Amino acid sequence: MNKQMTAADAVARLRDGMTIGFGGWGPRRKPMAIVREILRSPVKDLTVVAYGGPEVGMLCAAGKVRKLVFGFATLDAIPLEPYYRKAREAGELELMELDEGMFQWGLRAAGMRLPFLPTRCGLATDVARLNPEIKEVRSPYDDGEVLLAMPALNLDVAFLHVNVADRLGNCLVTGPDPYFDHLFARAAKECFVSCEAIEERLSLTAEQARGNTFERYLVTGVVHAPLGAHPTSCPSDYGWDLEHLKRYVASAGEEGGWSRYVETYVTGGESVYQARNGGPARMGSLPLPVF
């Protein structure tokens, strides 16, 4: 029943060509310690499914993404993820760009083991024009309404980051927004969760249980990764590191910028990463952004 493992153990389960989903939202509660472990690995030719943030750009910059299925790719305060932009402008990606609602509908379909779910989202828009593989269906009832059939976004693996987990796979999100992590967990054959804190067994109050949005049976492995969402935010523990994100964005406009970023922040492992970002005390005290 002990599902604890290392980030390297989790990433070792990946194979070239897999479809991988990343929880979180833009630069918020992304499993970045696992993303950095993927960057250190040889895995490639991935289909990445995400409400995208820096994980999308970094994996694109490393040449690991064949196809991107997404609602957006943003750093919020910095509107467009820079390495995603470079890859897209260079024509390096196969894309399925979706309305945010269609995206979560595709995850829901996968979680319910359905081939598609009908929706009005995307009708008479460029979403349908740019994704001709998305078909229309007609209601079999008297209304006869024509709808889009959003295909299931079936995942081989999902990676999520939460505030607290236990070794059994129970998870707790203490921030105000669980995003759509529960849908990623249900859409995947295997789900790996990194966490800020790990306990032997969670004991939740009725109020806390609202932050436990998916069942432990869905979790394949638990990775203890303190500060593992950095440089994205992890409410209620710490905010995003805008100083780091600005350096990351600047590197996209520099000759050899990505190689230097990798050498500085990825190659040496997580202890070096934390040291080069001012250490755990600084990283853990980053203020939460106010919207």
TrEMBL record:
Q: Specify the pathway.
A: Aromatic compound metabolism; beta-ketoadipate pathway; acetyl-CoA and succinyl-CoA from 3-oxoadipate: step 1/2
Note the SUPFAM superfamilies from the entry: NagB/RpiA/CoA transferase-like
* Catalyzed reaction equations: 3-oxoadipate + succinyl-CoA = 3-oxoadipyl-CoA + succinate
What EC number(s) is this enzyme filed under? 2.8.3.6
Recite the UniProt keywords alphabetically: Transferase
State the InterPro entries in the record. Answer: CoA_trans_fam_I, NagB/RpiA_transferase-like
Q: Does the keyword Transferase apply?
A: yes
What GO biological process terms does the UniProt entry carry, in alphabetical order? Answer: beta-ketoadipate pathway
Keyword Transferase part of the UniProt annotation: yes
> Recorded GO terms, molecular function?
3-oxoadipate CoA-transferase activity
Q: Return the Pfam families for the record.
A: CoA_trans
Broad class of enzyme this protein falls into: transferase
Q: Which PANTHER family does this chain map to?
A: ACETATE COA-TRANSFERASE YDIF, CHOLESTEROL RING-CLEAVING HYDROLASE IPDB SUBUNIT
Kindly provide the name given to this protein in its UniProt entry: 3-oxoadipate CoA-transferase
